[in-house]
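Sample intake sheet
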Amino acid sequence: MVDVSEKPESERVAIAEGRVIMTRATLEVVRKGDAKKGDVLGAARIAGIMAAKRTHELIPLCHPLNLSKVSVDLAPDPKLPGIVVRATVNVTGRTGVEMEALTAVSVACLTIYDMVKAIERGMRIEGIRLIEKRGGKSGQWRPEA
């Protein structure tokens, strides 16, 4: 692991997003809450939060962090059609939370897939990426347009 002991603690935030692309029919099942496995969006939200908290157990050399906030928002989007997943992670610490936000999105997307794969195995998980990072030595970062 990288030695961060000399770094000052600061407020750090990372926001990541991804999408699960599916047919309109599958999206309607998710929106109505009619999936055989239950509440797809609720389960995916909890899975994403739990994954963010355990990132250091999943990704080699990640620091274990005492996260102060993890939110996972899931928005059905009929234009895709699919679900847009966005995670925001906060910590006051010596290292950033980009990996925690990306892990939250990844696991939430995988949970959506798992819960409705019996309906549609051809779903696609796409566009998992960091969309904002704040804090630390490098300050704020957003992808260029």
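Comment: Residues 98-116 form the longest helix (19 residues). The longest strand covers residues 10-21.
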